[in-house]
Amino acid sequence: MQFGYSIPNNQGVEDPCDLVDLAVEAEKAGFSSVWVAEHLFHSSYVLERLGDRPYHDAMTVLTAVAMATKNVRLGTSVLVLPWHDPARLGKMVATLDHLSHGRVVLGVGVATTEDEFNNLGVDFKSRGRRADEVLGAMQALWTQNMPEFAGEFYNYSGLKFSPKPLQKPYPPILIGGSSGPAFRRTVRFGDGWHTLRQPPAKFAEGRKRLEGMMAEAGRDSASLRYSISIQARFDAPASDKPVGERTTLQGSADDMIAIIRAYEAAGLQEMAVNFRSSTREQNLETMHRFCDEVVAKL
Known about the structure:
Elements: E1 2-6, H1 16-29, E2 33-36, H2 44-50, H3 58-68, E3 73-76, E4 79-80, H4 86-99, E5 104-109, H5 114-120, H6 127-143, E6 149-150, E7 155-156, E8 173-176, H7 180-189, E9 192-196, H8 200-216, E10 225-233, E11 249-250, H9 253-265, E12 270-274, H10 280-293
Helix pairs in contact: 1-3, 1-10, 3-4, 4-6, 6-7, 7-8, 8-9
């Protein structure tokens, strides 16, 4: 099992420089990856959590982190594809891949915040079709010298696109979500499945379903990478649910280890752990405690 650290760009940290410092500390502590989240407006549950505090831009923070670190992979958990123009996002990702010497991992999803879609002028009901098209368009942009792509929302022809990503053919694409469309998107475009709020038992079911769908599509399911974004809390008692039904790492170190073991047995390969704190000090304290009391005992 590998462990990633979720940079709290979505937790109301006032100074974004603290986010970069935390990523550097995570690398020093031995985390394999660092991850950022994305929302553009303080919609619904984001407003409830943050109030007037900031939600810093995912790709800007990750670019700063790329220049301050050397080895950790740089993940998005997740970018909301329907909000992005594929040519602009494709150029950002490719540039970041070069700046980081090939460390980008692109986690993507479609989101459920309809009010945010309305503010952005993006049709909520077509978000799945638009996400699929963004992925297809970016694959064309990244792999064709003169990209040719014709879709419902985006069309490219007759112009060169550069740079191409450093990783070939492009950075790993991890598909977020656990719906039917998300699974189909994983089979069609994904190099991995990146989920959240899935307990070990549900994750195991999802993985089995994906393996069957991959086989039907003629793809080797062994090529998929499985990861999850999950919260870790030492300040909450262990859940009274069976280990296979727990969705948060909480309680004692032994409680957390039991849940991690359950995910590992279900085939999970990486956890992006978030500590849900807006202070640099508390993030550092919990980060090192997690490494010393949990990871060191696995």
